Amino acid sequence: MPGLRFCANLTWLFTELPKLSQRIHAAAAAGFRAVEAAWPYEEDLEELKAAREATGVELVLINTPPGNIRGGDLGLGAVPGREQEFRHGLDRAIEYAQALRCKRIHLMAGRVPQGSTRAERAKEMESVFIQNLEYAADLLSKRGIMGLIEPINTRITDPSYFLDSPHKAADILRRVGKPNLMLQMDVFHWQIMDGNLTQNIINYFPLIGHVQIAQVPERNEPDTPGELNYSYLWSVLERHHYGGFVGCEYRPTGGTADGLGWLREYWAQSGAHD
Fold it and tell me: How far is CA 101 from the centre of its chain?
């Protein structure tokens, strides 16, 4: 049975180094063959290309631009009245993805507008999100890029985020019906919002295009104390022949490299890194 493929999320890991290009080199030195990053748009594109090419590390995922973070944005995909901004951001994401040979873009849904309640805006936001996803899927399909949507928990991380459960995300994907749109399963968020991880993984497995991990509730390394038994979760993914990447999107308790003992152990036991 082939082992899982892990990638370092450079927005969370190797932050001892200020630049993404430096973190790519650090990830490669630590043994990673793939990386992901939320928003690379403030970085020099040529530097990122040079780092990727020098190390041979694959960039597997970036997010669409968040909008105005200081103004309260965290993505624009489902935000009414911001459709044109979403499209401009998608164009920029595609520019970076193509330059860096990245084949996955997380299409961020965004937050319920300030001054509104979720109940007041839910139907409108869902309609906007579906329209934007249809537009994005067609654009991405022409470039061989997969679009992903990710439920984010509203209990701890972001109370205003629109897409807050795997069930809602799966329903939206089925309604859009585009084969190059899939589900980004962040185990941290799924556990907090719904639990029942084994059954949810099985039920939604055909829709899962990317996985991310962190321990619950502190969002640290998967082998730190917490609710989740990652050895068991690895076996669930392996039994179902998950062939995508597993993004390490957690907050290291100390130095990033010092906290990778769990991964070195997995590589040694599975032979996945031979």
Answer: 17
